[in-house]
Amino acid sequence: MLAVTKLFNESENMTAIPVSDTRTWLRSVAERRDRHAFEQLYGYFAPKIKGYMLRQGADDASADDLAQETMVQIWRKANHYDPQKAAVSTWVFRVARNLQIDRMRKLKFYEVALNTEASSTLENLQHNEQLEHRTDTDKLRKLIGELPEEQMEVVQLAFFEGLSHSEVSCRLSIPVGTVKSRLRLAFGKLKIGMGEKI
Amino acid sequence: MKINHHADDATIMAYAAGTVSEGFSLLLTAHMEVCSHCRERMSLASDLGGELLCEVEPARMSQEGLSNVLSAIEADIIDPVTPFKSPSASSDMASVLMEYVPRGLDELPWQRLMPGIRQYQLTGVESGNGSVRLLSISPGIRIPHHTHLGGELTLVIEGAYEDEIGHFKAGDLADLDASCNHQPVAVGNKPCICLIATDDKLRFTGLLSRMVQPLIGI
Predict the structure, then answer these.
(1) pLDDT 10s digits, B92-121
(2) What superfamily in CATH does domain B1-85+95-218 come from?
(3) Which candidate in B52, B74, B153, B176 is best for mutational testing of the A interface (most A CBs within 10 A)?
């Protein structure tokens, strides 16, 4: 766990993630069914998705299959991605996570549409306008890198290893309330740092 | 719809990480269809997931990985496009719940639990030791004092209730953990209908309700 935290902190010095490149590739896939752009996306994301599946407990062959299947879904669903409303990495994460839940946990996972206009019939437009901003991923990455180690640890156990609050509590031998408060503290820092009015 | 009670940040994080039960994901989706505050926080938590994905240690893909994927997408006869199902503007019911309540709340085969309280258990939603159920509570009726072994999410569908925490009306979400001992009472002039998801058994604190708990299956 410490090694992963360290990796994350050191990543600030690594080559910047090509956010604009991934967005261009995904748009080319969506609009022109561009195979070359898709291969670029594969080269960038498939090893990360496989790494994510391994952390979730899949063996090497299953993680490879799940990463391949995620990439097929990215091809098929590319037209659902709206570059005005979410980072490519966010969208890819959701596709990978949903596939992992479906295949590894054999559960349905209901998910609200975060980046559509569907809610405009239900709510006032002002709120929707607030949603129409794309997250500053550089800023968010920096904030994540600044999270204290004990908060980062519970975040990683949830997102990487798929542990529920009570499972994190057992793993770390700390009360569930402490798990939740560390998550709240971490999320609070991200909210304030991103200037969210939430 | 003005929403006053929301999901806890820790619950939002678990939802974005994908670690909540199927029942919790159903209820949180229903709430977020009408709650921009929680949807906005869910967006940020999902952005966090995306950034973490970018930082995960990459694993070398198998040699045949790319060719497998290209073969799969070439085998698509036509590109399947999943139609987006927009929430029904003509119904107050969250669209995600329509699958379970297709003909409306009045048509459900409600089961009487005790005077003034009826329930309908949603079948086919995996919830581990917990459950997902609709409760219909007549005005003035109190649910017995109880705490929770795990978490409990309650979404008000119609009507309103009050407890030690506050006043909850349609769209409001109560996000309770094991430390909370509460006794909700339905208020107003029509039944309060709630969707309740637990991830473990409730623990009634009164002797009588402890005795009837095995009979009513909560």
Answers:
(1) 678 888 888 888 898 899 999 889 999 999
(2) Jelly Rolls (2.60.120.10)
(3) B52
